[in-house]
Amino acid sequence: MLKEYKSVQEVVGPLMIVEGVEGIKYEELVEIQTQTGEKRRGRVLEIDGDRAMIQLFEGSAGINLKDTTVRFLGKPLELGVSEDMIGRIFDGLGNPIDKGPKIIPEKRVDINGSPINPVSRDYPSEFIQTGISTIDGLNTLVRGQKLPIFSGSGLPHNNVAAQIARQAKVLGDDAKFAVVFGAMGITFEEAQFFIDDFTKTGAIDRAVLFINLANDPAIERISTPRMALTCAEYLAFEKGMHVLVILTDLTNYAEALREVSAARKEVPGRRGYPGYLYTDLSQIYERAGKIKGKPGSITQIPILTMPEDDITHPIPDLTGYITEGQIILSRELYKSGIQPPIFVIPSLSRLKDKGIGKGKTREDHADTMNQIYAGYASGREARELAVILGDSALSDADKAFAKFAENFDKEYVNQGYETNRSILETLDLGWKLLKVIPRTELKRIRTEYLDKYLADKD
């Protein structure tokens, strides 16, 4: 039996304290009716004896302690899921905001999900083509992987996210592919950019969008990624689809966590973030993966902006521990006009070796990837040396590597946001650029591949 309480004792920011409660549970959904009859929602955040702390989703402005009624609904926050969600746009709490009809759910699912048993996890091994050479060729994305993008304030991570959402696909697989896009704390202009881009290119037909704007309650940001992942789990593990989940911006999510933690008067951790930030982020990231015996999969690309471009900041630092690599956007490349400004040297995909090679991409992929990395690193060192000592101090090999690095930035990295390169085009372009380097210096590629591919690329 549902009970109503009129024992609100305190409201602090997004939190409400109710006394004299009994039989309630952690994460239980709450309905609050104000003195004006307005209804708001919240969830149980903490229970101490007969006292409950409630986190309000719509904020606490205008609440009268004496006349406010609190009703505990006996269930957690849920999302009604259906295949009809594809092509639709929702807010951070799962309500349609695209003026379309209401979704008739097939069932309602707890947004907190349930952890995947490690024994039943399948190892990621299938290549996903994003159409971006620096990712496909050098930091390959694999189905079931979580590969974040580390950006900075003002860098074009939104363009990269939209490009991946438009272009990503699983090669040689007839299974349906969907994109679930979760945006937290973005501006109206950014939201409109994504909606317009998805609509114009037709990507909306295979996408589900969950959008939480900067002027929406910060607390809603905490539920947005969980709503997106709940939808993704339904499409992947019950409908057999390959789902790519793009979450932006995790920094705004962490700021919302910090706000709630401060309101709860918790002892702060590094830079004021709660001590459980690692645990909370892992609950999001670890919902990616594949399950043995099920055809679907969830691949995650979380995007976060590093405050002051500091990669040691708690958010990117902890994210790097949990996820399988990172794609890093460079302010230096961005200022040089390179699009997308992905800096390949510090970028890493820890599972790239599992998704490339014969039968997946091409037999020469691993060798050319290693050689391009080595050549680009040597070329950047040579360019720095030339600045200090002059070109005359460089050997012929150094000059060749410096030329390769210059061409690599201009042709390989700088492909723009509209170009969709196949993996074969990316590999062929790599061979074309490697022709600048003397064959004797191509020490990371097997002789049979040099004989087979190098002579053909003019």
TrEMBL record:
A single GO CC term, please?
proton-transporting ATP synthase complex
Molecular function terms, GO-annotated: ATP binding; hydrolase activity; proton-transporting ATP synthase activity, rotational mechanism
Specify the superkingdom.
Bacteria
The UniProt record lists the keyword Ion transport: yes
Q: Where is the ATPase F1/V1/A1 complex alpha/beta subunit nucleotide-binding domain?
A: 131-349
Q: Where is the ATPase F1/V1/A1 complex alpha/beta subunit N-terminal domain?
A: 8-74
| Span of domain ATP synthase A/B type C-terminal | 354-453
Task: Tell me the keywords, alphabetical order.
Answer: ATP synthesis, Hydrogen ion transport, Hydrolase, Ion transport, Transport
Q: Does the keyword Protease apply?
A: no
Q: Which GO terms describe its biological process?
A: proton motive force-driven plasma membrane ATP synthesis
> Which NCBIfam families does the annotation name?
PRK04196.1
**Family recorded in the similarity comment:** Belongs to the ATPase alpha/beta chains family.
- Its function? Produces ATP from ADP in the presence of a proton gradient across the membrane. The V-type beta chain is a regulatory subunit.
Q: What is this protein called?
A: V-type ATP synthase beta chain
Q: List the source organism.
A: Fusobacterium nucleatum subsp. polymorphum
Q: Which gene encodes it?
A: atpB
